[in-house]
Amino acid sequence: MYFPSPVKESDSKGTQAMAFERTKQKDWYQVLGAKPSDSPAELKRKYQKLALLYHPDKQEADVPAGEVEERVQRFIEINQAWKILGNEETKKEYDLQQRGHSIKGEGTNYKLFRG
C-alpha cells in the first residue's frame, strides 16, 4: 500500500513515483519524536504536543516570514506523520514497509538462505 502522497492522481506516473520515493524515505516516527514501540496513547500525546507547538494559529505575530513558512511546513509534516501512525492499519503497513527497506539497505546474504 502506498501511504498518502502530496501528488494528485491526475499528475503523471513519474511525478507520483518521485513523490512516493520522498514519502517512503521519511521517518514518520522521527517526525513525532517517537519510537515504533510507543503505545498509541504515547504517539497521540507526542503528536498533540507538536501540533500545538507548530499550529499556524498559535504562532506569534512578530515571527519572520521565512520562519513562519518553515513552521507551517513542519506542521504539515507532523499531520502527515499522524495520518500514518495514528491509524492502526496504516501504522502496521508502514512498519512492515520500513522493516523491508532496512533489510534491503543492510544487504542480504543469500548464502544464509541456501539449504
From TrEMBL:
GO molecular function: ATPase activator activity; ferrous iron binding
Protein name: DnaJ heat shock protein family (Hsp40) member C24
Presence of the UniProt keyword DNA-binding in the record: no
SUPFAM superfamilies named among the record's database cross-references: Chaperone J-domain
Organism (species): Zosterops lateralis melanops
Residue span, J domain: 27-98
Keywords, ordered alphabetically: Zinc
Family annotation (Pfam families): DnaJ
Gene3D superfamilies in UniProt: DnaJ domain
Organism taxonomic ancestry: Eukaryota, Metazoa, Chordata, Craniata, Vertebrata
Domain of life of the organism encoding this protein: Eukaryota
Coiled-coil ranges (or none): none
